Amino acid sequence: MEYGRHILLDQINAVVDQHGVHAQDAIRERAPVHLRGTEEATITNRGQRQAGVQLEFSREARNLLFPPDASRRARQHPSIQLARLARAVHQAIRQLCDEHTGG
User: Fold this and answer.
1) Average pLDDT per 10 consecutive residues for the chain, totaling 103 residues
2) Which residues contact 44 (CB under 8 A, 6 or more apart)?
3) SS (H, E, C) the chain
4) What's the structural domain count of the chain?
5) What is the pLDDT of residue 99?
């Protein structure tokens, strides 16, 4: 699990670090409990494995993805960074799945 978080963080930071946004591990950074994604009621923890990924985005990150202010209107016109972020998350999940299945 620790390794999986590391892979995901590295992939995300490769995309957003250059824009002054930095992904962090909420557990390692001792974020408030409600941001850690560890509660049983969290949707990502309700699956068969009772583990998943929960991404929380700061205001700065949302503004980067939906400029200039992440408003409802801005969300109709996402920046190219959103597609890059989605690809980074997809690549991290693919890498973890391939390592898990030996593919």
Assistant:
1) 85 90 87 80 80 85 96 96 94 88 74
2) 37, 51, 52, 53, 54
3) CHHHHHHHHHHHHHHHHHHCCCCCCCCCCCCCHHHHCCCCCCHHHCCCCCCCCCCCCCHHHHHHHCCCCCCCCHHHCCCHHHHHHHHHHHHHHHHHHHHHHCC
4) 1
5) 85
Q: Which of 82, 38, 47, 32 is nearest to 61 (CA)?
A: 82
Domain, as residue range, for 28: 2-101
CB 35 within 8 A of CB 26: yes
- Burial level of 16, CB count in 10 A (0-12/13-18/19+)? buried
- What was the pLDDT predicted at 50? 76
- Taking CA atoms, 59 is separated from 21, 66, 67, in Å, by 10, 10, 11
